[in-house]
Write a structure and sequence with these properties.
Blueprint lengths: L1 H14 L2 E2 L7 E5 L3 E4 L3 E10 L13 E10 L8 E8 L8 E6 L2 E11 L15 E8 L3
Parallel strand pairs: 1-3
Antiparallel strand pairs: 2-9, 3-4, 4-5, 5-6, 7-8, 8-9
């Protein structure tokens, strides 16, 4: 009985994920702490964000950047099988990439960070992490 309950919990958890077709090179938008399903059997989770970009209505001596932490993991696997990736947007090209290469079901993909939203704005005040989302593109790698 316990195993049936666990199976149903897993099925419902996967069903609650946003599904994206990684075979059509679609952009994928994921909210903070949410998980997307990458068919046939992998998940992508937006785990963390650190945003130090200069606000759009601010005057700064440097543009700043935003760093996001993403986790790619086969469904039903342990956390030690997860691929944890940090990607950066903004003034960080020399220290951290906006693109990573990952293996999903034995196929190599390129994962590119396209956008971190919302963009900081002084007049709107502090943005809670729960309001953040990332837009990424996942496509088969040519490398």
């Amino acid at each position: 009985m316990k195993s049936k309950v666990l199976v149903w919990m897993l099925v419902l958890g996967v069903a609650a994920c946003q599904e994206v077709s990684i075979y059509n090179n679609e952009d994928l938008k994921i909210k903070y702490k949410e998980t997307a399903l990458l068919p046939p059997s992998t998940t992508l989770t937006f785990r963390e964000v650190v945003d130090s970009r200069c606000p759009s209505d601010g005057v700064c001596i440097q543009a700043g950047n935003s760093v996001v932490n993403l986790e790619i993991k086969p469904i039903g696997s342990s956390s030690n099988q997860a691929q944890v990736i940090e990607l950066c947007s903004g003034a960080c090209a020399t220290t951290m990439p906006d693109t990573a290469y990952v293996n999903i079901d034995g196929i190599r993909y390129q994962l590119k960070l396209l956008e971190v939203a919302p963009y900081p704005n002084f007049s709107k005040g502090f943005t809670p992490k729960e309001e953040y989302s990332v837009k990424v593109k996942l496509q088969k790698s040519r490398k």
